[in-house]
Design a protein that fits this description.
- This protein is mainly α and 583 residues long.
- It is built from 32 helices and no strands.
- The radius of gyration is 35 Å and the shape is elongated.
- InterPro entries: COBRA1 (IPR010405).
Amino acid sequence: GPGQAEMYAGLQELGVANGEDLKETLTNCTEPLKAIEQFQTENGVLLPSLQYALPFLDLHGTPRLEFHQSVFDELREKLLERVSAIALEGKVEERYKKLEDLLEKSFSLVKMPSIQPVVMCVMKHLPKVPEKKLKLVMADKDLYKACAVEVKRQIWQDNQALFGDEVSPLLKQYILEKENILFSNDISFLQNFFSPSPKTRRQGEVVQKLTQMIGKNVKLYDMVLQFLRTLFLRTRNVHYCTLRAELLMSLHDLEISEICTVDPCHKFTWCLDACIREKFVDNKRARELQGFLDGVKKGQEQVLGDLSMILCDPFAINTLALSTIRHLQDLVGQDTLPRESPDLLLLLRMLSLGQGAWDMIDSQVFKEPKMEAELITRFLPLLMSFVVDDHTFTVDQKLPSEEKGPISYPSTIPEAFTKFLQENRIACEIGLYYILHITKQRNKNAFLRLLPALVETFSDLAFSDIFLHLLTGNLTLLSDEFALEEFCTSLFDGFFLTACSRKENVHRHVLRLLLHLHHKVAPTKLEALQKALEPTKQSGEAVKELYNQLSEKLELCKPSPAEVTETPSMELPLPTVPTPASR
C-alpha cells in the first residue's frame, strides 16, 4: 500500500535496498532463485560466521525474518543506549555535533516504526532540534504524538496556540475536580475541601502533568500563568488562583531554580504555603509576609497583581480568615482593640489584597486596596461583642440556680452587622467564617441569632459553594437540632429556600445535606421540604439526580401501613425494617 512505500521511502536516500528494488531485480532477471540468493547476500547481515549458521536455523524452521528481526532489535537497543551515552559524554559542542549528524542521517527513516524510536531518542537529547525538523514533526500528527516531551517543549515555546490546546483540557479537568469535591455526597466536619495538605494537593494529576510539560522552560511557565490569569478574568473562578500557587510550589518541590528564581512571588508563596499547611499565620511568618509586601519597590508594582492572585487562592483566604477569628478571640481575652493589633491588621491587609485580585488584574491598576477604617473601628469590635455575649451566657448557665439572673440569649442582631455583611466584602468574608466557627462549636443559639444576616450578603457570598460546603459539614455537628421544627424553619425556610429557586448550586447543597441528615429531620418538616425541593423543568441533571436519590431513601424509610396499625399505643414502636420499594 502507499503507507508501506512512504514508510520505507527513506531507505533509498541512504543507499539501502528495499522491497521496490527486489521487485525490480526479479522483474528483469532470467533466474529468479539465483537473483534472490544474490539479493540476500548483498543485503544480509555481513558476518562471515553467519554463512554457516543461517542454514542451520533454516533446518530448525526459524524464519529468516524472525532472525533478522531479533538481530535488529538487539542492534536498536545498543544504538539507543549509545545515543543516550553520547548525550552525556565529551565536550558540549562535540556531543551535540555528533547527535545532529546522527539526526541528519536517520531523520529520513522517521516513518519506519522500527527505526522511529532511535530518531526520537536523538531528538530528545538535542537541546535545540533544527527548526526544519521541528516543522516537519509539527506538520505530522503521528510524529508529533510520538515525540518526547523534551521535543514538544521546543515546539510549544514558539506555538502558543498549540500549547494552549494541550493545556486547556487539563485546566478544565482541574476545575471539575475541585467542583466535585465541593459537591461531594460525603459530608463531614472532619474531612472537607480544605483538609488535604498543600503537599498532597500538589501530587494531583493535573499539577503533575503541567509541571512535566513545563520542565525548566520559563517561557512555557509564563504561558501557563498567562492562561490562568486570562481564565480567572473571564470566569472569576478562584480555583485558577489555587492552581497558580500549586504550580509554583510544585516546581519549588523539584528545586527548579531556573523558574523559581525568576518568579517574583516565589518566596512569598513559599512562606504562605507553610501557613496554609498549619492553617494559621504565626507571628514569625506574619513578619516575613509583611516584609515582602512592604518591599515592593517603585516601578515593580505589577508584582502586586501576582501576589493578589496567590492571596485569592481559597486555601490562602481560608487560612487568613481562620487566623483572623483566632486573633479576635485572643483580643477579647486581652482586652485589646483591633486597631491596636499589628498582626490582625496585617491579616486584613492580605485578605483585602486577595479579595481585590480580580479588580486589580482587570483594571491593571497595581496598588493595594485601601482599608476601610470602619471595618477596624466598628465591624471587628461588633464581632468581639458577640464573643463576649457567648461567654457571658455560658458562664451564666453554669451558675447555681439561685444566682441565675433572668438572662436569655440575645436574639436580635445589631443592624450594623447586617449592613456590613451586605456592603463590605472583607467584613462579609470574616462574618461568614465567624458563623462557621460558632457552628463548629455547636453553638446553636449564636447560629440562629446570626443566620438571618446571611440572606443578603455581599455578592451573595453566603450562597457560594465553598461557604455552603463548609456550612453543611459543620451542621452535621448540630444534627440533633434537626428534630426541632423551629430550628428547621429558621435554617431551611429562613435561609436555604430563599435562594434555591434562583441558585442551582444552593438547591444542590440543600439536597446534599438532607441526603446525609434526613433521618434526623422532623417528619412533617421533611415532607414539606421534599415538596419545596422538587426539581423544576429548568433544573440541571445534578439536582434531579440528587432529588431522586433522596426520594428513594425516604421511600425506604417509610414504615408500611400494616406495621403502623399493629403497634400498641402504649409501647414504643420498634425500629421499622426497610421494605423493598414495591415496583
